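Closing statement on the N~2~-(3-carboxypropanoyl)-L-arginine sub-project.
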Amino acid sequence: MNTVELQLDGLVGPTHNYAGLSVGNVASMSNEGSVSHPRAAALQGLDKMAFVASLGVEQAVMPPQERPDINLLRSLGFCGDDEAVLAAAHLEDPVLLAQASSASSMWTANAATVTPSCDSSSSRVQFTPANLRCKLHRSIEPPQAAALLKRIFADSSCFEHHDPVIAADQFGDEGAANHTWLRTADRTVNFFVYGCVSRDPAAPAPQRFPARQTLESSQAIARLHRIDNAFFAQQSPDAIDAGVFHNDVISVGTENLLLVHEQAFLNTAATLKALTDMLGDDLVTCVVPTDALTIPETVMTYLFNSQLLKTPQGMVLVAPSQVREHARARAVVDGWVQSDSPITQAHYIDVQESMHNGGGPACLRLRVPLTRPELEAVHTGIRWSDPLEAALRAWVERWYPESLKPDDLGDPTLARANRDALQALTDLLDLGSVYPFQQ
Ligand code: SUG
């Protein structure tokens, strides 16, 4: 099956801030209360998209969500007009206001799980938005994510959309951050990594930080997508307790290449053997030993949150600039490029604003494997081009605050500007009415 991988990057929203909302995510916890730079953050994201597109990779943009989510605040008892709701939330419960205002939909690796049409008995590309039930500020993303995905991938002869898996303890789902599609010449595997088995209290589980993805939800997605080549492996609970809150913080794979830390899974050797048995000897696994990079170094540099891209020049790694600055992480990358691994080039990219909240290059994109005809069926308004890039840069310059603190979030002009900005964006991307305020 001849597929291309569309990189659907989340555009950072104008309320991007550091509220320390994600227990278990070391960067989010340690940057709580710092000043953010929404304009710079959005421009860093656009720089990354432009760079990836320049490599000859299919690139597209996913709009941000409407924030603050005033309907969330209303549903929790704040009333009056929008300004009164914001003022009361700011006064009574600033953490809740920050949760309602987070720009976290930028991390589209958590927006959905996507599997290719060739693997499904329905012969269509399969989408299940993640329920993100583990964190309140993220649990409000699925309705808008689902609406946007349905608008972007609208052709029902190519694309099938499922509802998110039920948001219950047993079914924590964080989307593609815990799913990797691998393939060799004639075989494919959907590799799902989970943090715990919710129904089995005796099973190994992290003690300090939450396991966001459950086996039960990964299994449900494989059923919904009607795929018979799913393989499930458990993440190392110790790694989760050290800040590896998603599998994409400790492993990245595409095509026949999997880069992984030796402590990524509960049993890494057995997991890699099982994958090789399924995919054959063409599967290339590059395992980084703890001696070369410890788990804290992995979390600090986000080495495995690099984008691994198949390009006309071969396999290219797009890593966060933190890796370049860290001698040991940099040595790992140099080793991959110099060895006979399929990686031919490495590039470093500055996504510092997102990194401060625990989101590297790979968190900012959702990968959508498509055949050429499926790619042609994608909404054209969001596909990368020079004119779109110029229009998006001008749009960001026009609407985004230069800096922001969590305490600024009660400002009603922010909420109004966010809606005006999104109206201008939906016009620019030719998306019609997708947001709650446009209904
Ligand atoms: O869910 N950070 C996000 C980062 C998500 C990264 N995604 C992947 N690894 N795929 C999270 O923890 C921080 C928000 C704050 O603290 O203000 C936050 O939500």
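The longest helix spans residues 38-54. With this model delivered, the sub-project is considered complete and its resources will be redirected to Aim 3.
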